[in-house]
Amino acid sequence: MKKIPHDYYLRFMESSVYNEVLEFHVKGNFTIHEAFQGRTGLHSLSEQYLAQLTGNELILYPDMDFTLNITEADQNNESALYRNESCERFLPLGLEFSEVEKLVYPLLSRNKKSHKRGYPSGGALYPAEVFLCSLAENGAAWPGGGRVLHLLPNSRKFEIVQGDIDVEKLRLAILPSTNDLGNPELAIIYFAYMPKNLFKYRYRGYRMALMEIGSIYMLVELQAKALGLACRLWSAYTDSMICKVLGINPALFFPMCVHFIGKQHEY
């Protein structure tokens, strides 16, 4: 079989492993919908405790000074190894399709004769699937007539996601109206495809998928900086709502995080 259909992996996936991983995964899902505004909450922590508990480093011995200073080398914040800070608000300045193409270059296979890509993958499973969604307000479609593309890193192609995708519904599923980040032009959604994820390493595969997606979005962050683009990682969405808009099975495709890309005045 030259091209394996995505559901072919179901033949090799152990159902008990899958059911347990699914049960664990959905515990981390949010239900974000206007019908529940003001009726749900994550915790009862005060702003004072939140400020104290977030943004800190973990010190193992807080009452003892077992520390060594790091010798400061010449730091160049413009270096390719430094990502930009997360964007607070995106501006509708337009994003060319050529910029979208360049954004994914680091993820592609370097050699057409090799399955190896621009990011590491445990056991060469590559369970991470990258979907690129145009959120442009002008409504213009990308080449091929699509608004949502699925990256094929080994083939070095985009697969056009079929179906009548409502961009406004997609925007609401990804970015609820209560959160104002402005106008990101692009949303990259990183999915873990579970049958491909679990068939070889079982439960360990779930951890490997998270590691792989972390590698991918950092590469995108660094490439975005080189292109003068702004980024913001996002997790305030409901899995099933995203999958419904895209027309994919939420029991098989787990959206692990969303990456907003766009432009702002200063980089």
TrEMBL record:
One of its GO terms (molecular function) is oxidoreductase activity. It comes from the Bacteria. Transmembrane segments: none annotated. InterPro entries: Bacteriocin_Proc_Enz, Nitroreductase-like. This is SagB/ThcOx family dehydrogenase. It comes from Pseudomonas poae. The lineage of its organism: Bacteria, Pseudomonadati, Pseudomonadota, Gammaproteobacteria, Pseudomonadales.
